[in-house]
Structure prediction request, 133 residues.
Amino acid sequence: MDTIELLKQKILYKRIKGMTEDKLILEDGTEVYFECTDWDCCASAWDCCASASGFWKSANLDAVITDVKMVDVELADFEGFGHPFNTAKIVLYHNQNSVAQADLYADAGNGGYYYSVLSVFVNEENIGDILSA
Prediction:
């Protein structure tokens, strides 16, 4: 089963109660957040030159989650000595209305010679890889 489907199993039909940039908090205390779980050399979440990260940008508090989608996936493929990166958004919906959004980013480091992997967590359980570069 893919990561989005597993995430749906964990959070569908729960009410959003709070949000920080780092995590979404649901009515039952469930926390949803992102971490860099694998990297090589300068493509780590702790290096200023490359990283994998995910941040909650908005949330409609007190909304019930009825769907989860990954949208606006952009896989950048730069030639030369740039930092290739991939971006996407995870959007949570109530009916057909967006109620929360997280921006995701993964960087392949100097010249694309390295990699980073961003994973989604629910209450400290790694649900799976969500984006990589």
About this structure: Strands lie at 16-19, 23-26, 31-39, 52-59, 67-75, 85-94, 97-107, 116-122, 125-132. Confidence is low (pLDDT under 50) at residues 44-50. The longest strand covers residues 97-107. The longest helix spans residues 3-11.
